[in-house]
Each structure stands twice: as structure tokens, then as C-alpha cells.
Model the fold of this input.
Amino acid sequence: MTENKLEFFYYINYLRALAILMVVFTHLNGLSAYLRPADFQFWGQINDIITAGKHGVSLFFVVSAYTLCRSLFLRSQESHSRLKYFIRRYFRIAPAYYLILLIIFFSVGEAIPDNFYLSSTLSWQSLLMHFSFLNGLTPAHINNFLGVEWSVAAEFLFYLLLPAYFFFILRQRRLFQALTLILTYFAAVVLACWLYLNLKTLTQLGGSFHTILIVRWCYFFIGSHFHEFTLGVVAWFILDYWKFTFNQFFVKILFYLMPLIYIVAAYAEVEYWSGYYSGLIQIGFWGLYFLLLLITFNQRPPKLNRFFNKIGELSFSIYLVHFPIFYYFSQIFYFEGISEIKILNAAIFIVTTLSATVACSFFLYHIVERFGINCGQRLTEFFDK
Done:
């Protein structure tokens, strides 16, 4: 592997690590809240920063679209390139994903409540919907299994849509490439805003279980996040195809400003961007913020840190296992506890759940995920014979 390719994977793994840590600590904060004393502010105002970690999934989407475009372009001259692309993508996520689904289905048989606090008895129909990645199209099944699988369905649907979209743009002249990307992005933002306003309206109405299902679907459906995928495609054209050059002094300043921008935005989201219309700011801001972060890391990659590099490698496995582990551990601590001191209970809960998550994800990645990647690679090599 060349030095440039190594550097590429380091900074991409950094971004993946940041994304999964944001998501993990958001869920950990929420599920450990009742273990803390009522008057205990979890790190004070830093709670706002942790809550904004839910947007880590948006960072995943931007990075994923960027790396997929890179892979599609580099392999575009291969025979059966699109078929091999689908094979690689399927085996990249399916084995580990299927295993976790089967474990939950046969060992528990009951859905893990997501952030809409819905739970239900699992069915064969739901399992088949998840195995086919079609759960993202139906309100009843979009997130009724692991509490986080909505994004897997969105990701897989984007896998299917990307090649036609990507190569259509690639065949255009530069001006039309830019116009197509801009129009696609704004159309996707309009769709996301429409879904958000529907979500807010239905939330205010409240009421039936069916209404809650529709609210949840509006939040999780790929249409609410397609603009983030689009920005990953934009990043590829800017950085890899058009090869824009950036003032390094400006990049250096931006590199150090990005954490501050995140903190200010996280606070603003809780205090000012949660209204009926003000919430629309979130839709535009976070995708563009992560696009800027990707460009900044591309131009000024952080120094190699083995911890972040490893977390980035394990990110998909961590994503699959963390929420079920957090949920079941939280039930144990809620009903039984370890200590009469609530803050000690919370600390033990955090340490044990994080340890269990890392251990399980390490196994899932090295035994199952890499096995799937190797299977996909062998199948694509079959078409070269």
C-alpha cells in the first residue's frame, strides 16, 4: 500500500472514529440519565455537546458517499465494474448485520426501543424486511429491531442509487456537473425540510401509535438524509476530480476552528434551533459542517493515532452492537444496580458497557466483518478469470 493510500485511510478512519464516538456517547448519555442523581448535570453545559453527537450518523453518510465515489471511479475501467461494486458493498455490511439481527431475533425476540421509545415483538416479516434492506421504506419496520438499523437501510439504498447518479454526472461537462450537484443538493434539502415539517406537525398533534410510526419514519427515512450523501459526492468532485487547491493558511486556521464551531452549533441547536421553523437550520448546517470537516482533514490530515485508527476500523461493528448492549446493561443497572450511590452506578455502567461494546465489536470485525469483505473480494476476482 502506497504512502498516499495509507494517509487516505488514516484520515478517513479518523472521521469514522469521530462519527461513531459522537453516536456512542449520545446514546450512552441518554441511557445512563436515570442512573444519575436528579440534580446532577452531566458535565454541565457539555450535555448540549454530547446531545449533538446524534449527528455523527450524518458524518458517516458524507464520508461514505465520498469513499464510494472514489472506489467507483478508480475501478470504473474494470470488467463488470458495477456488478463487482454491488458485490463488495453487500458483503461489506451484510454478514455482520445479519448476525446481529439473528442474535436479537432468536435470543430476545423483542425489539430494542429506539429514541421514539417504541418496542414490539419481532416477527419473521420484520426479519425478512431487514434482511432485504427494505425496512427503510416502511414506517412499521424502519427501526423496529436494533434501535439503529435505519441508517443501514438508508446506506444500502444509497449504494443502489449512486452508480447511475455518479456516472451520469461524470459524463457531463464541468459546468453541468456543478449545476447538477447544486440542483440535486437543494432538491434533497427541500425534501428533508418537507419531511421535517411533517414530523413537527404530527408530533404536535400527538395521538395514535400509527402517528408515532409516521413521525419516526419521517426522521429515519433516507429522504431526510439524502442531502448529506449528496455532499459526500460533492466532496469527491471538489477534492479528487476537479482537484481544487486551498490556501493552506486558511486550512490551518479552519482545522483548529472546527471544534469551536461544533461547540457553538451544539449549544445553538438546543437553545435556538429546536422550534417549528428554526429546526430547519439543522438540516442545512450539519451536512455542510461535515463537508467542511472532510475537506479540512483531506487538506491537513491529523497525525496518526492508533486509537482513532482502530476505532475507525471497528466503527461499523461498534455501531451494530453498541445500542443493544447499552440497552440491556441499562435494564440491569436500573432494576438491580451495583451500588446504593447513584453516581457510582452511572460510572460503573459507563465503564462496563463501553468495555463490552469494544470487546464484541472487536470480535465482530475480525471474525465476521473481515470474513465478509474477503468473500466479496473472492467473488469479484471470479469475474476476472
Observations:
- Residues 3-382 form one domain.
- The two ends are 24 Å apart (CA to CA).
- The mean pLDDT is 87.
